[in-house]
Design a protein that fits this description.
Rossmann fold, binds S-adenosylmethionine, 20% strand, Arc Repressor Mutant, subunit A, alpha/beta, 7-stranded mixed sheet, ArsR family transcriptional regulator
Length: 337
Amino acid sequence: MALSWQYEAPDEAETTAGKLSSAELIEALKAAGDPTRLRLLMLCRRCELSVSELTWIIGQSQPRVSRHLKVLCDAGLLNRYAEGTWVMYRLALQGGVAPLGRLIDELLDVEEGETSEILERLEEVRNRRRAVAQSYFSRNAEHWSEMTRLQVSEREVETALHAILGWGRLGDMLDLGTGTGRLLAILAGRAETAIGVDINSEMLGVARQAIDRPDFEHVQVRQADIRRLPYGKASFDLITAHQVLHYLDDPDVVVREAARVLRPGGRLVIADLLPHDMEQLKTEQAHRRLGFSDEEIESWFETAGLETGESVKLSGRPLPVGIWSAVKPGNQGKQGQ
Ligand SMILES: C[S@@+](CC[C@H](N)C(=O)[O-])C[C@H]1O[C@@H](n2cnc3c(N)ncnc32)[C@H](O)[C@@H]1O
């Protein structure tokens, strides 16, 4: 699958909050001081949207909408992300001017005639997205139900995951191969920020539905190859990889990449199949590996400079599941604070 890359270097404006100079504040106020841009802020707080979706909702030409978006991004009120050939926009949640974007949205009367019409059009976009995600689900339903039948129950895996993670805060979390976004839905409530990455844009459409909740403003999904993560080193406190490594020829690369972007004290938790002999899963379900042994996973942890932690085995017929955890040596990360 073609994946166009845009490296998301850690952005200072995203990571540091604090006082603004009067020039910065004036630029942000000017940027927001326009009827179309107010609406763009309001829309991008509710949902991550592409230029073409925004153009359709706002009802202006694409070049005009793009110009307004640029002004808002330059002022730090919006963030833009590449996803394949698309560019997505969302309200900046961190950085000096981020509180201004939220405040504007909170002050804006959404019952006002034109604003409420715009929100109705946003709902249409969301409904269309749901329909696309649903059709992807239906096309793959057979595959998913077959895997569910063969494996340990989701509930059992979740219980074991919670036992390994404990019940504290999780800090900044990254879910590798997020798929349906299930792990985000389960864990992101305890995270400061949570990002799910997946290489498949249709899966991202499904995951977006799982995180389209008012209490998940801090949660996002991004298109990325987990063998080459678009994040700087020491960016996360918790990284999860649930049922994804067996699709890769080189899962050890993913473990090294996870170790790079983990903060000292941060944790990597892998849940995947234990060694099995269902050879047909390679041809029928594109599995590249027939499960993993403790020795294999632990050797990857060691090579990546991680310390092996707790692990659990869950017996399933015919596919048992293992959960392995590792810690990056060094100071405690944000999780558990
Ligand atoms: C079986 S699904 C698991 C999804 C999710 N983790 C869960 O347990 O519900 C595997 C996911 O890994 C994704 N994937 C496979 N190879 C990938 C890669 N190199 N980079 C990112 N995602 C990948 C697939 O697109 C798919 O969504």
